[in-house]
Amino acid sequence: xxxxxxxxRTTSEEIDAFNKTEDYAxxxxxxxxxxxxxxxxxxxxxxxxxxxxxxxGLYTHVANITASDxxxxxxxxxxxxxxxxxxxxxxxxxxxxxxxxxxxxIVWVVADFGFEEVxxxxxxxA
Length: 126
Fold this sequence. Notes:
- This protein is of the alpha+beta class.
- It has helices spanning 12-21, 28-37, 46-55, 70-79, 122-125, and strands at 2-8, 59-66, 85-87, 99-101, 107-110, 115-117.
- It has one domain (2-125).
- The protein starts with a strand and ends with a helix.
């Protein structure tokens, strides 16, 4: 099965702007990534935060991975084999906040433990 991988990718300019101001308003990608690491601190869920970030255009489609299931996607993204990865852009290892869309257009977000379905995005993927 082929899975689409979406990640929030920050630029050096966004990081520099945040470092100068320490204001997340100038770096929404950094804020979204941070909030997904600690969703309860912002009274939310990783699913809702991922949906907001996706609708806000913060994600980039970075790769497609051929795997048997979500756990296999995680393994391949982090340790390979490289032959199972079709790179579309620069990507990092799969981690909290990353979005995975399967061939059935079910949208998943990497949570602190496993994957959570993001039902708010099902209409986007379909």
